[in-house]
## 1
Amino acid sequence: MRLSYPASIKIIRVPCTGKVDVIHILRSFEKGADGVYVVGCMEGDCHYNQGNFRARKRVEQAQILLDNIGIGGERVRMCNLSSSEAPLFVKYANEMFDKIIQLGPNPIKLAKKKIKPIIREGAL
Amino acid sequence: MIVADKKPIEEIIQEIKDYQKILLLGCNECVTVCEAGGKKEVGILASALRMYFLNQGKEKLIDEITLERQCDHEYLEEIRDRIDSYDAVLSLACGVGVQFVADKYGSTPVYPGVNTCFLGATEKRGLWTERCQACGQCILANTAGICPISRCAKRILNGPCGGSTNGKCEISKDLDCAWQLIIDRLKAMNRMDDYEKLADIKDWSSDRAGGPRKVVREDVQE
């Protein structure tokens, strides 16, 4: 089909979305990602039965946490599609891209540029 | 195990906002099992706090260490060399761990990162229920292995009371009547004769009524 999606989207492959944890989503933001969306198989079609349901719960946890700390839970989303649905993949990619454009850059990325890091003395 | 629940992040932020270098101290025991203060939760909280303070324009040093236990000297000693590098410790262990850190490292402020709730069991993932109140004199032998002290709202020893309806407690339709459970189990074991035996008045001096408690075992002391 040779469909294209926004070039700024980086794909991180995982064996199953059940592998994705809250910490992975948070670390992405700490490292400067503007948004994260988890693309899992269709609900009910998980090879490991529960993987994509677990991912959805973790995405919801991350949304609440990001709302609480002022980053914005809207920057995280869970999507489901089957591996043959390329047009739907592109649709979700474009939706997420538009959402991030609307929300603006990750505030952490901007804050990091302004602040001098603390020098560690004896700490880990 | 000791069951704890997460503290709201807003409360934790209030506790530590004035410190620059903070150590998040997790515990590999009970709070790991109840998903409140293990290595994973420490990582998530540390990441969230770092981002919160950065977003507020404050750079803080937030480090993570998870000890095997926080209620034993030998494990707490592992942070002795580093503890002075931090302005404060946020302990995600139960209240015992928080106090033990405070006892051991007298000049370092220690804050609780979880709410310690009760002694309980994992019914299923995400559901923990109270099963023991550590009253100090176990009566489970007489109550078919079901504890009326921790599971009956009135802690009565000769039940059920008049508030038991269709096997549920009057305080909540979702709460089983402990005495109904006891009777059902005595019936199942064909031990209903035991139900006729009245329980003596319980000596509550081994419970909290007698003040803070201790267990002394000279036979194992060094």
## 2
Amino acid sequence: MRLRLLILLTRIALKMTSVVTTSAPAACWACSVALDASPLLCAACGKVQPAAEIDYFRAFGLPRRLTLDLAALEREFHRLSRRLHPDRFARATAEEQQWSLAATALLNDAYRTLRDPIQRTEYLLKLEGFEIGEEFAGKNKSAKRQPPADLLEEVFELNMQLEEMRMNRKMGESDPALHSELTAVSLRFESELAKLDSGLAEKGAAWDASSAAGDDAARAAAAKDMAAQLDRRRYLRNLVRDVNEALTTDKES
Amino acid sequence: MPEDRATERVIGIDLGTTNSLVAYMEGDKPVVIPGVDGSNLVPSIVALDVAPPDAAASGRTVTVGNSARRALIETPERAVYSVKRLMGRGLEDVQDELKLFPFHLADDIQPGEVLRIRLGEMQFTPSEISAYILRQLKRNAERYFGAAVTKAVITVPAYFNDSQRQATRDAGRMAGLDVLRLVNEPTAAALAYGLDRAKEGIIAVYDFGGGTFDVSILKLNDGIFEVVATNGDTHLGGDDIDNLLLAVALDEIRNEHGVDLRLQPDAIQALRKAVIEAKIALSTEPSAKFDIELPDGDRYQREIPREVYEQLIAPVLARTAAPCRQAMADAGVTPGQIEELVLVGGSTRIPAVRALVDEIFQLSARGKQPHTELNPDEVVALGAAVQASILAGSSTTTDELLLLDVTPLSLGIEALGGVVARIIQRNSTIPASATEHFTTGVDGQTNVAIHVLQGERELATDCRSLARFDLKGIPPMQAGLPRIEVKFLIDANGILQVSAREQRSGIEAQIEVKPTYGLTDEQVETMILDSFDHAETDFEARQLIEARQEAETILIAVNKAPSHSAWQLISETEKAAIHVARLHLEKVKCESDLKAIRDAVTSLDHATRNFAEKMMDAAVSGAMRGKTMQSASDDMAAANPAEIHAPHAFARAEFE
């Protein structure tokens, strides 16, 4: 009854702040020169550094900002990859090979997260102590999440329509009017998603500005705003996905 | 020390479903290393020789490659091909395969156990069979260099999962090779084409081989080969086309001649050979002909026009389209953005495949041609050699090259209700990692079980089970109090590593990793081929012994030749040449000049080549007439392609 044991297992979500620490060593293990840009690599002697628990911004030697030059990020990713990748350490000591593996994994994870504006924002807010992401969307993942208050009525209506479509399909029928109505709903939500994305970018710029100015109150307000918008965005995106899935199966049948 | 290491040769190996190759970077150019028979391709066929009655069990000899080909027809119960299809898989995964391929599995395999293949009186795991192929390639390389080889890069299909990768790495270890890296085949092909650092932009690799299909989209930038998306099907290849043609032929023979060849393994192998020849001919000819003598003396004659053939195989080819479109969608590119397309694998020689590729990637519409300059059978091995050189740091040409590959499948863990919580998404650049936190559900609980899965489906039962981990030795605490941090890391080979620790007590949780279809380290140790022991001993002495054995084997075969019916089919001049070469080899064999023995073996091999071909043809028609027919009670019948039904018949041949 191995499987039953899994029931005893609970995935717990922790605040990222308690996990991510920024305790990187200050100097290179090999040449003792102080590490500056990225703590993964010594700029002076080019040696890979032992695994340290650093955040993704630190890995790239970047401040915690949401506005990023993507081309520069890619260039830096390539530059660091050339120096850190395990392929460069095939003939090194076992210890350095292990460090290279850990450092490259961190670099890749960081690049993947930072190059995507939404993931970047979610990650930064987690670092700032916000509860963001799927695991916080409800105590029980399978439970239906509460829709944002202003969407309650619309979502209720939508679910009725989706149910109707499912019933039709069971009977082997398809209602063209219903189909086009739902297509319109999907398009409307998609455009709201696009609006949310540009709104998030604006808030991100505000967060960056207040961080630079040391305006803690404005910074906290921007963060709170972004967290709320991210929740709404996640909810809408799941909704669009459900509707599109239903539309595809309806078309096929 | 580093200077010594730099001179150590690292070889690149393409361990293919149908053929395998070994290559190496010679100066600034990768080259394929030929085998004893002068051929670059070593067919991935392994046969257990018929042991003389007085031989001890340990004296078993295994034949690999071209010389094992004959065994496929003469002693099909002692030979195996396409073993790559079984790598890292369990009994329930391979049911479809068993219907199509004459794999003779042991009867007592339990679900969840590593497969074992019967060859005569012995059993081997798929990794062991692959190890014999790898050992042959290693020997070919050693022969070529005149020095021991211990390090290799081996290619795998990009869409191989963790278990299939581990099985491949295990095979390398069994063959006495330190596998420095597993490289994805399409990525290797891109490396072979992209030695020129100046290349920039988005390229696609379409790799349709003997048993697997892969497609990869890469971004080239100043020597960096960054894979952005990959997709594929690890059970789709030229083999499937062969099986389809074979099924049609078998059906027709049964319907028209009342003979069910499905019960005759040797006849099936002979027919398969004919089918493959027809397939190859159809890539260049407008039609191909079968003319096969049946056991009852009748003839099965057919003419297959290319049109009919293309209709027949269209559904197989069409299965490559969806992975291509998915890869482009994942990469966020449209066909119009793909600047160059590379064709890899023997099946890309089929004109219908090229037409399909042209349509999917809109090539001719954009005035583009696919890249086929490098031999599609060799390009993966050449790329493996380039990667080997990158790792060895042995060539300035490869100094600035770097491969950034991705994991083809998402990694997840089973959560409440049997759903999969995805922790690393597919197409993430590797090495990649994810950290998860777990706690206990009841007071005093000291164990936590974690089920790791690979795949894109929502439910754990629909994904591939990779391993079950037990976190043991958690200090007894109130439920929910322990905080166990588990780190999942996919390394540069695409293989998962797991580590865990309980954070509150600081106790390192003990992890017991049991791969679902893998071998434990201890099991691998016991399967390391005998050759490994010899690696420790004097290399020169071993080479001499092996050369003498090789000489002995060929002499025995040649001495038996005059009693074979095919002997009458060769000219007197050829017979005289064989005689001279044989006498020469017998003389030098007893001396200690390694090169002289090898040269003598090669010249005898050349002298007998025509005879060997005649003998092969005789074996094929012999099998058809049922001369070497096995008894029908042979349980191998169960493994024959009885289950596929021909979609439609071939047109009747119009022989004049």
